[in-house]
Design goal:
The protein is mostly helical and about 210 residues long. The chain has ten helices and no strands.
């Protein structure tokens, strides 16, 4: 029961980042399983480590390939050309963010968020700064759009992760529950896109952020 307290408490207290708090949670679970409940045997531990390494290797490979792609595109001038092309589509801030929302939603259906970020951000960032769009506001919008894409069929990367955790296949029943949530989330994304104050008021009110534009 202490795991949520350790993970969330360390984040909200500013003691650890989300990644560091997750590591603390893993060590806590390992300690409890090994020494208190004694349910983790050497065989279970080795099997868990192998599965973790295999899963992490896939993610790291994707990140590595996306990094190489970004470097090659930057070196060859592809990113600059793509940024100019995107900037030429519109000079309206709202229209630009709405277009990016559509792109991120579609891309999120097929790719994981890390790959999308590595591939698209070098193209989007110069235009973002040129149009003087607040980066925090855009970051919130981007994360929500990617999160929606990750649960949207046909691929829905996060559904595969969920189905693996619950030891079940993705079926029509699961998709029926997901689709209404997708539509509601898209509506929320649209509201947050149209009203930047929703994502900015709390950081500004707490004195932790000063709008850049």
């Amino acid at each position: 029961m202490l795991a949520p307290v350790i993970i969330l408490g360390s984040i909200y207290a500013g003691v650890a980042t989300p990644t560091e708090s997750a590591i603390m949670g893993v060590f806590y679970a390992l300690f409890v399983g090994l020494f208190i409940y004694r349910t983790i045997t050497l065989e279970v531990l080795v099997s868990s480590l192998v599965e973790t390494v295999a899963g992490s290797a896939v993610v790291m490979f994707v990140v590595a390939m996306a990094g190489i792609f970004s470097w090659a595109a930057s070196t060859l001038g592809v990113i600059d050309a793509a940024a100019q092309l995107v900037q030429g589509l519109t000079t309206n801030k709202l229209v630009f963010v709405l277009l990016i929302n559509v792109v991120m939603l579609i891309a999120g259906m097929f790719l994981d968020a890390i790959s999308i970020t590595y591939v698209f951000m070098p193209i989007i960032l110069p235009v973002l700064l040129q149009l003087q769009i607040d980066p925090l506001y855009f970051g919130v919008v981007l994360v929500i759009a990617l999160a929606i894409g990750q649960i949207t069929p046909p691929v829905a990367v996060n559904l595969y992760v969920t189905s693996n955790i619950i030891k079940s296949n993705i079926n029509d029943e699961m998709i029926r529950f997901v689709i209404p949530m997708v539509f509601v989330s898209i509506l929320a994304l649209l509201v947050i896109t149209l009203f930047p104050q929703i994502s900015l008021w709390l950081p500004i009110a707490s004195g932790l952020y000063t709008p850049r534009f």
